[in-house]
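U., I forgot to send this yesterday:
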Amino acid sequence: MPDHYEIDNVDISILSVLQNNAKKPYTEVAKQAFVSSGTVHVRMNKLEKMGVVKGASLDLNLKALGYTVGSFLGIYLSQSSLYDKVAEQLKKIPEITSILYTTGNYSMFVRIYAKDTDHLKNILHDKVQNVMGIERTETFVILEETLNRSITLTEKS
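Result:
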């Protein structure tokens, strides 16, 4: 693959189709993108090698699996230079689904899913608060999630 490969409208069209349903067969993607299935296969391989596509994932309904409490956690670090070490420890907590390095009041923001408030309390008390470098935290329980989506891709002009 050339180092100078640029994403074009064919790539964007393919990605847009798969973004709505990553399980869609390449033959169907090809029909919707008006290209051959071989083109879809080659383009997807290139996009994976470029790091644009990181793989496919399942979009789980966590509530149906018993995780009824979602929350965000603002984390104050004792030193901002500890971010990498703290992030590595937080990655070991399975209920944490995202870790963000931020500006503003918090050094970090994480998203946590728990089965109930007792489970959330245990995660915070027994796991998060034991991570060296965390000075204190502030928890925000999610009451409702109205939107959770990826960016809609648009063709280049």
